[in-house]
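Recap from last week: sequence in, structure out.
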Amino acid sequence: MRDSSSDKISYCVSINDEDVFEAMKSINGYLDITPEDFKEVYLAAYKHAIGRVTKSVAVKEVMTVGVVFATVDMPLTEVADRLSENAISGLPVVDDRGRPVGVISEKDFLSRMGVEHALTFMSVVALCLRGRGCDAMQIKELTAKDIMATPAVCLSENAPIHEAVSLFVSKKINRIPALSSEGKLSGIITRGDIFRSPLFQINV
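Predicted structure tokens:
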């Protein structure tokens, strides 16, 4: 059972004097305080506040716990079942000590089935019908370690979430396993976990 981060956190980012000061410094020219000017200051201050908070909020406060994962020797049929049953597009793969060693996503399945550039489910069906790919039977006997992306890109659960954002961009990935102090899988953080959180909701 997954524990959604949206059920766990209730941050409301407050703007302090430093945020307003930094926002005002970032705006060129003289400020005549009209509603539009105030809105501009508010947005700039809010962005500064988010930058400040993302450096102080730890991954463990946003991540999903109770992670759905696979073991290295798990048959791909079981891995596929786990992805399907939990309506997720990827999961971490752990060794016998509970340490993440790789990640498997839908893309890894598709690439092994010869459908590397499929964008939708129906594009996969179309390729199968044409006999141009989707050779699932060839990978039926494989295990998680045979198709997982490795090494797994991981973060400490105590790392600030801005490090996760940086990795999402630089590594072009969508999920990062989080590690306990013992180096074991303790959670997973996704792009959605961060951007669905109240930390990134700006209302004017």
